Amino acid sequence: MKTIIEAKNIHKSYPMGKQTLHVLKGVSLKIQTGSFTAIVGASGSGKSTLLHILGALDKPDSGSVEFQGKDISRLSAAQLNRYRNQSVGFVFQFYHLLNELNVLENTLLPAMISNGSAGYLKKKKELQEAATVLLERFGLGGRLRHRPFELSGGERQRVAIARALINKPALLLADEPTGNLDSKTGSGILEVLNELNRGGQTIIMVTHDLRIAEMAGEIVHLEDGRIVEEPKIK
Amino acid sequence: MFAWKLAVRYFRNRPSSWLAVAAVALCTFIVVVVLTVMNGLAFDFKEKNHLAVGDCILSTDSLVGFPDDPNWLTLLESQPFIEAVSPAILGVGLVTQPGADWNIAVQFLGIDPVRHSAATGFGRSLYYRKNQPHLAFVPSYAPHEPGCVAGIDLAGISRTSQGTYLHPLQQMPIRLILSSFPLTPRGAMARGGTDLVNSKTYYLADDSHTGIPQIDGSMIYLPLEEARLLTGMDSPFPRISSIHIRFKSSVGLQEGVEKVRKLWTEYLNSRRNHPYFNLLEAVRVQSWLENRRSRIAAIEKEQTMLILLFLMLGLITVFIVFVIFYMLVGHKSKDIGILKSVGMSKVRIAQVFLNFAALIGLFGSLLGAAGGCLFLVYINPIENWLFEHFDFQLWDRTIYAIGQIPNQIQPGFLVSVGLAAIAACLTGALIPAVQAAQKETVEVLRVSQV
Questions:
Q1: pLDDT band (50, 70, 90) for residue A214
Q2: Contacts with B348 from chain A: Cβ below 8 Å
Q3: Could you tell me the residue ranges of all domains in chain B?
Q4: Which of B348, B442, B448 is closest, CB to CB, to A58?
């Protein structure tokens, strides 16, 4: 299978008061197209930082990330915006929806940004139909005009997934997508992710819960900023 | 489009945005009301001075005047850019009434009322003979007696506390004795002994209201030849003190004045051998603005000071908007992180906040301007009501030569104030908008998760 994204010897540290916290200590990782990979680790192991670097939300101190063979550290600011907008979709633990927009508008957000004013107006009907189909698929057909604070946690997360998928990104990055949900709702979200993966969507999911990680096809263990074959803590 | 959509939603949903709108509206309201009144007063005052003088004036500071040359006046009148020309004689004297034991120092202006009305606003300033200048010096109660016109305040017309002059139905029969010292062209007394002073009795035919207190309170208008006799400007050759000129409406003020200056220089060069060339040399050719500069400068200075004060008010608006946006960007950190995570550029993030600021400026200025216009429309009834119920008046009309509070709304001025309000909001929001654009995605999302 073809490699979609590859991290090479990633190092990342943060200043913590007078000290420096070395979060990632030479992480290398290859993700294949169409795979569902779970990155598992304890709190503070650097799994979210790694996901942010893969999604170009953060920059590594050293090392590189290649997406479909291209080093994303060499991309200009505009190209990085395009990468975040069209190549990857992000799902966050706390949903991160805009309260000022309704469900349909939140879902359309990346499409509005990528198409610009004129482009969006031209394709408005087509894009709204695509977003509606996506939301109906996630059981939110009756919630299109609702605002995020009118939805349950599970519904909000499904809107966040729909938003991440509206521009049909090659890679879906999910940071603890069930971390803020009860187990039943969380299972529903995982089922959605599995279904997407079965449809060919490449997914990288970060979680601290091994039982959730086991639902993914591949598991990468991150411990103290390094990838390990056999984790000490299970 | 999205930047506008989000800006509109922020604007609608944030209570702080309505506070900012209120601040902008208040500033706009104050600026619109105060500057409209002030500009109205200044415009009114300038226009009154313009009407009193005409477009252009040739004059001398000397009380002995300068030679009155009919050829020169004919030359002026034949110019295609000139509408009307009026020679005048300005003198000083004392006025009293028969049998009275008082006298008042006055100025008098000798004019041909028809010519002077064509060149200035004299005809319009009359009360009983308004726009009938040929009758200006004909007393209705004594048509065959020599008549004069007095400034409205000098004529003793009473005035209500709201500024309205109360004229009798007809001109009251009043006799005025005007005395003046006739002077030779060299400035010496023209007569000696007991006949030193020229005195003549005139019948008050009308009053003149120019709206300029210095003129209305001390000026008496006489026929030109009468003034010439009183001032001694009839010998050894006829003299005048000034020539008032009105240009054709198509001629610009400076253009007209320059043309008259050129003509005067040529005329002056042709009169070098005149025995009183020094009197001609002392004549200045001025536009009405230059001639009345000393009077107008004070009100212009007040206008400048007010504009400076309002610039400070504008700075306060900028600061209020800055504070509101600084807090808003702090509250909206999560949104900024979300927008960046889905690929929105820094410029467009800044644009969201600048659009928001523009909306605040737009709504604030619209509300302020609308409130200001409404207040200006009713400013005079409001002042009348305050005066009737609380004895409050903005200007004491018995002292100030102001009738109604000027409330002429200028659309161009309103647009300028609105644009300035939007610009102030954009300026205030600029730094917070740039800060929003510079926020690190991961940082703000991580903080908002905590």
A1: confident
A2: 113
A3: 2-46+296-449, 61-282
A4: B442
